[in-house]
Structures are given as C-alpha cells and as structure tokens.
Amino acid sequence: MLVAFTSSSTALLAGARAPHSAVSHASAARMTTMATTEAKNAAGNELLLDLNEPVFPEVCEYAGVTLSRYVLEMARANPDKPELNELVSVMTAVERACKTISNLVRRSPMSGLTGLEDGGGSINVQGEEQKKLDLITNTVLKNALKFTGKMGVLASEEEDDPVASQPSDLPGADDYKWNKEVILEESGKYVAVFDPLDGSSNVDANIPTGTIFGIFEEPEGCSVLNKDGEVMDNECLTATMQSGNKLVVGGYCLYSAATEFVMSFGGKTCQGFTLDEQVGEFVLTKPNMQIPARGKPIYSVNEANRWAWDPELTEYITAIQKGEGETGQQYTSRYIGSMVGDVHRTLLYGGIFGYPGDKKNLNGKLRLLYEAAPMAFIVEAAGGAAVSGKGERILDIDPTDDPTGRGVHQRVPVFLGSTDDVAEMRSYYKK
Question: What is the distance between the alpha carbons of residues 45 and 54, in angstroms, rounded to a whole number?
C-alpha cells in the first residue's frame, strides 16, 4: 500500500528503515537546508498555511520515521498553530482506515468481498454500480473519522449528500430526513472529503486501487446544530463546498504490490510513506517528493474517447505519439484506469495524466471535491501543475459556482503532471 502525503512545509526528515530504506541521514541533512518561510508551494502558488517542517535529529536505525511520528512532530514544530494538535487524531484515524482497507482489499478474493453489491442492484449517486468493497470501505473510513470527535461534516463518493458528524441521540437528530445513516457528533472542527476506493471497478482483477482524502477547516461560525439543539439548514452541512486552495491536508493511499501513503500538510511539500506490514506502521520512504518539470515521455489518458475530444487535445496527443512534440521524443501510453495508480506513477516519473471532457461527458468523470482537488493539491506540492478544461487552476475552482448543480459531486476535466508537459498541452488551445 502506498500513501502519498503533501505537507505545507518542507520536510526535514531523517532516514527510514535500514539497510533497505531509501531515506538516509545524508538526505535528511540536505532536506534541512531546504526549510523556508515563504508561503508558496513548489509550483509557486500561495499557500493557506506556512508550516515549519519537523526535524528528526535522532532516528531509529530499524524503525525509521513513521507516519504517526511525523504528524506528531509536525504539530510540535508549529506551536503557534495549536489547531494542528487536533489534526493528530484525525490523521491517526485516516492512517488506521487505510491499513484496514488495505487488508480488506488484499483478502477480498478469499473473504467473498469481490463482486457487485446486491448482485448489481446497488447504484450510487453517480449512477455507478457499487462494488461490495465500495460500501464497506466507505463505512470504514467514515466511522474512523467520526470517532475522532473532530469531524463536523463528511462527504464521500458513496454518499448522496454530506453527512453530519454529531451523536444521533442529540436533540433534532430524529428530524433529519436524509435517506441514509446520519452521524452526529458534538464537536466538529474539520470537514473531510474522500473517495474510499478509487478504481474499485478493477478490484476483482487485482489491479491497483486507492483511497483519496482531503481535510478542510469547517467555516468559522458554522454549526450543524442551533442553540436549541435542532439541525439547521444545509448551509453548514454543505461546508464541504470549498475550493481546493483551502485544503489543510490532502493525500491518497495506494493499494498495490506495496501499500503507500502520500500526503501533504498545507501543500508546500509532499511526503511518501510505505506500509511495513510486519510491524503495521507506515515508514517514510519518499521524503520531499518532486515531480520532474519534464519527466519521462509518458501520457496517461483513456484513448477510447479520443474521437469525442476537443480537436486541440487530439492534435496534442497525436503529436507526442509521433514524436513531433516539443521534446522530439515519441511518448508512450500508460493508463491503468485507477486515478490513484496513474497519478502516483506520474508523480514519480513525470509526464501528463488527463481525464478530459468529451462530447458525451462535457465535464469528464472525475469529481472536483474528493478526487480532482486533493490530487491537484498533492501534485502542486510536488512542483507539478494541475489544470481543468479551460486551463484554470483546479485548486481555484469554486464548487459553489457549479453550473451543473451536482453539488458535492461536481465533475471537472482534469490534466495534471509535469509543468512543461501540462503547459505544452495547453499551448495547442492557444494556436
């Protein structure tokens, strides 16, 4: 399992597991020199938070730097931001949920969790048939977050609407009429958005899948319950409707040959952890991840839809296929069909990933809040670019301006990857 993690400050991280660890004490020293107070991410965009990265002067030769230690030290390194202490329990819940989901995915062929829910009769709000694991992993992640006591509102691909996160026996809770489980919690500070099992249509074939998550602060003055203990209108229950540039934490977990966790606090740096299944801990293996400005000649897009694309996009893809692009190299196609898997490869090797709009799906199929925005957050933290169909920055798209009226399930075209590749693609729209 791979977890991708982005942080708003440059990571000052010492080595991971020895002797096999990819992180050495020398690399930690190099990272220390990179600390900065400039509130911009690696892509040069303004940050919501400017955090000090933790320093690890002593690292266990055998245990390395674990995800839990990293999160704790991040809070300690920023005493002027006491709210980070509350995020410790939230991130612990996300970490625990990812470990649980990783185990469920690995054991699904033996435990009877493959196949469609209700024999194919269960459909989510997207109009998609739900796999058994879609619903189970949604419950795992939702419950893990609700039990932290820090969650105000939850939004997921598998939920029709945002779910309040306060005890269901509170006054007014019985009057809440959503046709699904409603979770109410007394104190909520954060808003979570997530896709519990991205690429779940591939799970039966043992192809990489993943979990995508993003965490916002609940808007100031927002309260799910009023002074009489009654559930208020949807204004606060739709507090998920925030643009990606307001993310506090974003990340994903990849379930593949290994389980990896990639995440970012504030969006300045990107850290990658790998699950050591023998001890049950995520260990830092990819500190300060950086996407090359012009990576390997790889593009990742579903070409079955190319006849319905914009002519400019078709021209660009044809040019790089023939080696007639800016690099003069012939590009290779790599497309898994799981966003987490495709973006993770792009993050490591460079190139470009896209899910464009077409004549059938004008806005593509990727959801802004819990797929496009968290992934854009990570890619920018690693120095890449992430734009939508008109070249606008994905993190600047305001979901409250959605002309389609899909609410938290708004879809947007997505292009992300190496800055030079994304810029070259956009140049075809300017001819």
Answer: 22
Q: What are the backbone dihedrals phi and psi of residue 349, each rounded to the nearest 5 degrees, phi first?
A: -105, -20
Among 56, 422, 373, residue whose Cα is nearest residue 216:
373
pTM for the model: 0.81
Buried b / exposed e across 116-128, counting CB within 10 Å, b at 16+? ebeeeebebeeee
β partners of residue 269: 7
First to last CA, the chain: 43
**Residue linked to tokens 């839809």:** 305
Task: Count the helices and strands in the chain (H runs, E runs).
Answer: 9, 15
267 contacts 381 by C-beta, under 8 angstroms: yes
CA–CA separation, 327 vs 395, rounded Å?
28
Q: Helix or strand or coil: residue 104? A: helix
Report the Cα 282 to chain-centroid distance in Å.
17
- Three-state SS for 129? strand
- The whole-angstrom distance between residue 128's C-alpha and the CA centroid of its chain comes to 21
CATH code assigned to 298-427? 3.40.190.80
The values of phi and psi at residue 205, to 5°, are: -95, 5
Q: What is the DSSP letter of 12?
A: B
DSSP string of 153-185, one letter each residue: EEEETTSSS-EEEE-TTSTTGGG---SS--EE-
381-392 confidence digits (pLDDT tens) = 999 999 999 999
**CA-CA distance, 249 to 216, in Å (whole number)?**
7
The domain locations on the chain are 83-286, 298-427
In tens, the pLDDT along 104-157 reads: 888 877 766 665 554 444 454 454 556 677 788 888 888 888 778 777 777 776
Same fold for the domain at 83-286 and the one at 298-427?
Answer: no
Closest CA to 186 of 162, 167, 164: 167
At residue 272's C-alpha, the angle toward residues 268 and 274, to 5°, is 165
The SS3 of residue 25 is helix
Residue type for position 191: V
Give backbone dihedrals phi and psi of 40, rounded to 5 degrees, phi first.
-135, 150
In 88-132, which ranges are E strands?
Answer: none
CATH domain 83-286 topology: Fructose-1,6-Bisphosphatase; Chain A, domain 1 (3.30.540)
Which of these ranges, 189-198, 306-315, 371-380, 418-427, has the smallest mean pLDDT?
A: 189-198
Burial (CB < 10 A; 0-12, 13-18, 19+), residue 301, is buried
DSSP 8-state assignment for residue 327 = S
